[in-house]
Write a structure and sequence with these properties.
Number of helices: 20
Helix content: 25-40%
Mean pLDDT: 94
Distance between the termini: 30 Å
Bound molecules: adenosine-5'-triphosphate, magnesium ion
CATH architecture of one domain: 2-Layer Sandwich
CATH topology of one domain: GMP Synthetase, Chain A, domain 3
């Protein structure tokens, strides 16, 4: 294939390798033979489904007779809350801790599995009293407090479908999600603690539900004690839930019963209501949590730092870990409250052994400095994970060294709201890790990288990431819009699920994610990924974070424009021409002259979604001098003003 025809250039060469520690490899839950054992995919997933307790066995593992509408474990019945809570109590583990919950102000709560069983049962009875029935939708708009997983499990217990909306979203965002799902009640709190302050939630709900005819009640948890406006539809959690019986018989539902709707984070545009169902979803979240984190439920303490408002929190704070009977940490607040070592303090306090976070957090810690984690005892950590964006090799190596003590394997896990669970990831006891690579599809998953004809690219080639066979935790549709489901995910390539991401296979056939294909830059006939140029910039010792976009250019078609945040420790004149030239040369040296940015702007912050992903489409607006597009899913909308102010000083040369 000639260079000008290649789908996506493969520029970055990375030679560092990290083998699993011998003891971990020896005792790993999942060993190398798992890949061969999974050759019969339905048979493999049927064995994994045996991890769960079914009240009625399934007749057929997979019905794929009407693609792309899959049915897994057809005819089977189970209850998710029973699987996540009751069965552990019945097995004699009622006294085991399910959650060590840590509030931002320093308060803490411990919930055992027996506590959880009582709390979830009471909440389920309260929902029933409020008129919620099997199949109804419940919106949940809560901070990271125990009532959030309790509410989700209470819904699952009675067969109601939850729709968790991230507690930082606006009234407008909440309203459109409530309307889209036609939710009957919304569960919220007076407020929550973030950055040392009590921030209000109930007032946002009041604004949202002023105009949502489907909502009958607002169920309010008291968290901060702040003043709230009272409405007739309001019910206090402590009034209604506390007086319920702490017994409730979980209702078995069909394997394909809707468990939840969750809207994607909206990096690329209008959020989509992704529908997940019951049996297949719980099977794959449980299996992947067991395999990718090597969970030993009797000895490990697991912490996923995501917000439950994102899919990572659904699958890897609530459903996967609880299905596996794990002991988890849950934290309410921000990483810098009251100081920048708060997370490491929590890891030391609970002796966390398995930790899961996002590249955006890792890069922030790099920016804050190595000395902060060094002050804490992190020696309990044995597997550390990353999710949400491609992890730049430099960030991976920093994470491994400064958090994982150069011992704990880093698992870079690729997946999406749509996939429900991890799809591509190293196995910590098997894989020789490469910094920046998600490596290989997990056992039971058929993913590949194809060219624009849908043909697999050879090793060394780049293209589109696709999934070739249905998987148990796949989305079933976009809520209320089957047509958009088919169009969005299944029409780019015949018979293949297209995820929207670019990727490459290295010479060993291992997979590297290269960012979204919508963001790919076409420079002088070469398709260049944003990820590779960003990683090259981040590999410069003075750079903490970088985002790059392609801007229209009369000479090259598109030209690479970069936005860079220097490290706190950088020193010197980081705005001067010499430094900018040094960075541009550094990229040219790392990736080749074709990838040299036309322009580099030093900025104080980057526009990110509330889930921490860089929003490149807004930077493209800046780079092309357009007015800035929709910023409603941005974590901090003032960031764009800061960046625009920088524009006149933008540097460009040769
Ligand atoms: P929207 O689809 O509305 O734009 P979103 O894609 O940001 O929102 P999510 O489902 O939370 O919403 O994110 C999934 C995306 O995150 C993936 O498609 C991929 O681009 C990126 N991603 C997640 N994990 C990884 C990873 N380990 N490596 C590379 N990219 C990742
Ligand atoms: Mg997406």
């Amino acid at each position: 294939m000639s260079q000008s025809q290649e789908t996506l250039s493969n520029l970055l060469q990375e030679t560092r390798r990290f083998a699993p520690p011998a003891d971990l490899a020896e005792s790993a839950n999942v060993k190398a033979d798992a890949y061969a054992e999974a050759a019969d995919r339905p048979g493999f997933w049927a064995r994994q489904a045996e991890r769960l307790s079914w009240s009625k066995p399934w007749d057929e593992v997979l019905d794929w007779s009407n693609p792309p509408f899959a049915k897994w474990f057809v005819g089977g019945e189970l209850n998710v809350a029973y699987n996540c809570v009751d069965r552990h109590v019945e097995a004699g583990n009622g006294g085991k801790v399910a959650f060590h919950w840590e509030g931002e102000p320093g308060d803490a709560r411990t919930l055992t599995y027996a506590d959880l069983q009582r709390e979830v049962s009471k909440a389920a009875n309260a929902l029933l009293e409020l008129g919620v029935r099997k199949g109804d939708r419940v919106a949940i708009y809560l901070p990271m407090i125990p009532e959030l997983p309790i509410s989700m499990l209470a819904c699952a217990r009675i067969g109601a479908t939850h729709s968790v909306v991230f507690g930082g979203f606006s009234a407008d965002a909440l309203r459109t999600r409530i309307d889209d799902a036609q939710a009957k009640i919304v569960i919220t709190s007076d407020g929550g603690y973030r950055r040392g302050k009590a921030s209000a939630l109930k007032s946002t709900v009041d604004e949202a539900v002023a105009d949502t005819p489907s909502i009958e009640h607002v169920l309010v948890v008291r968290r901060t004690g702040q003043e709230i406006a009272a409405h007739e539809r309001d019910v206090w959690w402590h009034d209604i839930v506390e007086r319920q019986s702490d017994e409730h018989a979980p209702e078995p539902v069909d394997a394909e019963h809707p468990l939840y709707i969750l809207y994607t984070s909206g990096t690329t545009g209008k959020p989509k209501g992704i529908l997940h169902t019951t049996g297949g979803y719980l099977t794959q979240t449980a299996y992947t949590h067991y395999a990718v984190f090597d969970l030993k439920p009797d000895t490990d303490v697991y912490w996923c730092s995501a917000d439950i408002g994102w899919v990572t929190g659904h699958s890897y704070i609530v459903y996967g870990p609880l299905a596996n009977g794990a002991t988890s940490v849950m934290y309410e607040g921000t990483p810098d409250t009251p100081h920048q070592g708060r997370w490491w303090e929590i890891i030391a306090k609970y002796k966390v052994s398995l930790f899961y976070t996002a590249p955006t957090a890792i890069r922030t810690f790099m920016k804050w400095g190595d000395d902060i984690p060094a002050e804490h005892d992190l020696s309990s950590l044995r597997v550390i994970g990353s999710v949400g964006e491609p992890i730049n090799p430099e960030a991976y190596v920093w994470y491994r060294e400064h958090i994982g003590a150069s011992r704990a394997p880093v698992v870079d896990t690729w997946w999406q709201t749509e996939t429900g669970s991890i799809m591509i990831s190293p196995l910590p006891g098997v894989t020789e890790g490469k910094p920046g690579a998600a490596m290989r599809p997990l056992p039971g998953i058929a993913a590949d990288v194809v060219d624009d004809q849908g043909t697999p690219v050879p090793n060394g080639g780049g293209g589109f990431l696709v999934v070739k066979e249905p998987w148990p935790s796949m989305l079933r549709t976009i809520w209320g819009d089957d047509e958009r489901y088919v169009k969005t995910y299944w029409s780019r390539f015949e018979g293949l699920y297209f995820a929207g991401d670019g990727a490459k296979k290295d010479d060993d056939g291992d997979i590297w994610l290269l960012g979204r294909v919508d963001d790919v830059m076409l420079v002088s006939g070469h398709n260049i990924s944003t990820t590779e140029v960003e990683s090259a910039l981040v590999s410069h010792p003075k750079v903490a974070e970088a985002a790059v976009v392609g801007a229209t250019d009369p000479l090259t078609g598109q030209a690479i424009v970069s936005f860079v945040i220097p490290r706190g420790s950088a020193g010197g004149d980081v705005e001067g021409d010499d430094f900018l030239k040094e960075l541009r040369d550094h990229v040219a040296k790392t990736l080749g002259p074709i990838a040299k940015p036309r322009q580099i702007m030093i900025v104080p912050e980057l526009p990110k979604t509330r889930s921490g992903k860089i929003m490149r489409r807004l930077l493209r607006d800046v780079a092309e001098n357009r007015s800035i597009g929709d910023v409603s899913t941005l974590a901090d909308s003032t960031v764009m003003d800061l960046i625009s102010e920088k524009l006149p000083s933008a540097k460009s040369e040769d």
